[in-house]
Amino acid sequence: PVLRLLEAQLQDQRREHEKEMEALKNLVDAMQEELEKQQQAFLQTLQLSPEAQVEFGLQQEITRLTNENLDLKEMLEKLEKNEKKLKKQLKIYMKKVQDFEASQIMLPTERRQHDHNMQVAVQRKEKDFQGMLEYYKEDEPLLIRNLIT
């Protein structure tokens, strides 16, 4: 069992190595082709007049800068898209935080009302009321609830 496991691992490593070697060989071939093209272009520029060499050099530089600008524009678009995504996420999280804070504010208020209800009930038990009772209009539901219970 251990020998088979080691043999399988060795075969996997061999396959990975062969894939890497193939990729590197393709890269070397591509670089050789590019080098040959550059050598041919260099030999052609040597045969040109000095003015034509300068013009050719300028054309090469313009091409390089154009390609670089296109790459930078693509990168900028990706960054702008990412920025929009992050702003949307930020809005969502800010809304969640506001909702959470609002719920935290509501909880203590409800507790205070509950504590106030308990205190009012205790006061009424301690005092002996006779006759009419004075109350605020906003306390009416609380008063009715206490009278019922």
Description of the structure:
The chain is mainly alpha-helical. The protein has a domain at 1-47. Helix content is 89%, strand content 0%. It has three helices and no strands. It has helices at 2-47, 50-126, 140-148. The longest helix has 77 residues, at 50-126. The protein is elongated, with a radius of gyration of 41 Å. 0% of the residues are buried. The model is unreliable at 120-124 (pLDDT under 50). Residues 3-103 form a coiled coil. Keywords: Coiled coil. This is MYO5B protein. It comes from Campylorhamphus procurvoides.
Structure in a nutshell:
By secondary structure, the chain is mainly alpha-helical.
Tags for this entry?
149 residues, single chain, 3 helices, mainly alpha
List the helices and strands and how they pair.
Blueprint: H1 2-47, H2 50-126, H3 140-148
N-end to C-end Cα span:
77 Å
Compute the gyration radius: what is it?
Answer: 41 Å
What is the quaternary state of this protein? Answer: single chain
Q: How many DSSP H or I helices?
A: 3
Number of beta strands: 0
Shape: elongated
**Which range does the strand content fall in?**
under 5%
Q: What is the mean pLDDT?
A: 84
Order of helices and strands: HHH
Largest sheet: none
Low-confidence stretches: 120-124
- Give the structural class: mainly alpha
Keywords: Coiled coil
Coiled coil: 3-103
Organism: Campylorhamphus procurvoides
Protein name: MYO5B protein
